[in-house]
Design a protein that fits this description.
- With about 120 residues, this protein is an alpha+beta fold.
- Helix content is about 35%, strand content about 30%.
- It has four helices and five strands.
- Strands 1-2-3-4-5 form a five-stranded antiparallel β-sheet.
- A hairpin with a 5-residue loop joins strand 3 and strand 4.
- The radius of gyration is 14 Å and the shape is globular.
Length: about 120
């Protein structure tokens, strides 16, 4: 069983699919969004990121979600629960990234709390 989507009082998250490439590309070109995520990424890096995250879904049944407002308007960010290697140790990450217009509203905390349930 997979968690393809989830909602919080203010957000709706949907499973990453190939059609999200243009939105991932937009996020990866935003210097503010990417400031703490390794910096702006190239087209090739973005395509590989999408491929890796789609493969993660296939392998584990969870991964990266694209996040919209609860009204399901435009995408405002992304969230994830995923396996990664940190200095040779297997870890599980809860992560998120939002466009700057959505910062400082408690949305990261809201989505992270939902990912822990």
């Amino acid at each position: 069983m997979t968690l393809d989507s989830f909602t919080t009082p203010r957000l709706h998250a949907e499973r990453l699919v190939p059609a999200h490439l243009s939105e991932i590309r937009r996020m990866h070109q935003d210097a503010h969004v990417m400031a703490t995520l390794g910096g702006v990424r190239t087209e090739e890096q973005t395509r590989r990121y999408l491929e890796q995250n789609l493969e993660h879904w296939e392998r584990y049944g969870f991964g990266l979600w694209m996040v919209r407002t609860a009204a399901r308007d435009a995408i405002i960010g992304r969230a994830c629960v995923r396996h990664l290697d940190v200095e040779g140790a297997a870890e599980v990450e809860i992560g998120y990234a939002f466009y700057p217009d959505w910062w400082a509203q408690g949305l990261a905390t809201e989505v992270a709390n939902k990912c822990l349930v």
